[in-house]
Amino acid sequence: MDAVIEETKTQDAQAEGAHADIALLEEFKPGFFADRDAPLVSMYLTTQHGWPEAQQNRIRFKNLYADVERALERCYDKREFKGMLDALALIEAQFAQDDAGMLAPLRQGLAVLANRRAVSVYRLDYPVETFALVADSYHIKPLVKNFQYGSRYYVMALSYDGFDVYRGDFSTLEQLDRPDGIVTRFSEVFDDYDVSLAEIGNRYKGKGRNYFGYDEKSQVVEKETVEHFRYAAEVMKDFMAGRNCPLILASLPKHQEAFRAVADIPSLLERGIDKPFGSMDKKEQLAATGAIVDELQRTRIERLVARFHEALPRGKASSDVNDVTLALVERKVETLLVEKDRTIDGDVDVESGFLRRHGEACVRSDDLTDDFAQATYLQGGDVYVLERDQMPTDTGVAALYRY
Q1: Runs of H (alpha helix) within 151-281
Q2: Which of 349, 339, 389 is nearest to 369 (CA)?
Q3: 237 — phi, psi (to 5°)?
Q4: Can you give the three-state secondary structure of 373-401, one letter per residue?
């Protein structure tokens, strides 16, 4: 959900870019980088934690700010972008606060994408190369890696009396308090809630009912548990709709079976955690979820690579830069794989198919693979940033076609 932090304004109302809104974002919104009104600023920073390392955050961001300012002076009329620079200065000032101010809590990295009207800030779950770029397009590959499928996930910790929801990545796990207003305790939803699976085999007392026989009582428990779990499945389906993240179920095996029998949640993974999530410490929780997500990503990438090799001889895939450019012009790229640390100098206009190699940017060269990634996203395709040894080719790019 977008959170507008603050608006900064210049004194010159006639200057272009007289204000720039700052938004701290938790979700990746590809529509933002559809803006091609240059100059566009991309800033990436690996953030430090603890004393005295955290003091370097402001120094390094200030250095990036200086790089951006020099680039604007060299290539543009800097006065037109005072509002944007004021917004970036406001972000820098947050690092002077002990808790990082509006940027808290800091994670492993920070990404800032800015134009003359808006500044988007992302807290990243991975360390990134620290750099600034002023060019005709944004640089988004580090963002793609941070938000590609599986990098973030949700955990549903289910028990007989309710459930808890966690949001996680590979290094952090946060329990959400009533996410989206969801009531997570069954006793608050069902007026006649009295039954728990833990009571099976013991004397049960309900409203106007006494059950001493195991079989009769267990049937009541089973019926009401199905009703409770069906409620949980419905609200979690609504919660996960629109979130491009996997959902991990953590509960006892008997609860897993009962819940999965009534759940229809597309993002719910087949593999779960077969023990109460609350009985695990944070390190155990991260290890368990990390193993599941790591396997998920590895399997998905292996399947994509296998599909690429199958499709290549049939003309349904390519790793040639010129071919990929033409495929984007024809809007037929379904999935794009790009090498994480590979840069191909140049830029592309996917409307006309014009490909310019060795393009120039004010601070650092444009990356053709980054332009490919943005075009693929804007056309509704999927993008994966892979390590070199995961790529199916040595060209830095591989595309699977829709047809």
Answers
A1: 214-240, 253-262
A2: 339
A3: -65, -45
A4: HHHHHHCCCEEEEECHHHCCCCCCEEEEE
Provide DSSP, 120-170: EEEEESS----EEEEESS---HHHHHHHSTTSSEEEEEEETTEEEEEEE-S
CB crowding 257-278: b at 16 or more within 10 Å, else e: ebbbebbebebbbeebbeeebe
Instruction: Give pLDDT tens digits for 202-256.
Output: 333 343 333 333 445 556 557 778 899 999 999 999 999 988 899 999 999 999 9
Q: pLDDT digit string (tens) for 16-40?
A: 445 678 999 887 877 777 767 788 9
Distances (CA, A) of 140 to 33, 137, 170: 9, 9, 20
Amino acid (one-letter) located at 32: F
pTM (whole model) above 0.70: yes
For CA atoms 158, 159, 165, 170, give the dihedral sign: negative
Q: Computed over its alpha carbons, how large is the radius of gyration of the chain?
A: 25
CATH number 3.30.420 is the correct assignment for the domain at 153-299: yes
| Cα distances (Å, whole numbers) of residue 47 to 60, 151, 213 | 9, 18, 61
Distance CA 114, CA 122 (A): 12
- Interatomic CA distance for residues 185 and 191, integer angstroms: 12
SS3 356: strand
- The one-character DSSP state at 31 is G
Give the domain ranges of the chain: 3-140, 153-299, 315-401
Superfamily grouping for domain 315-401 = Ribosomal protein L30/S12 (3.30.1330.30)
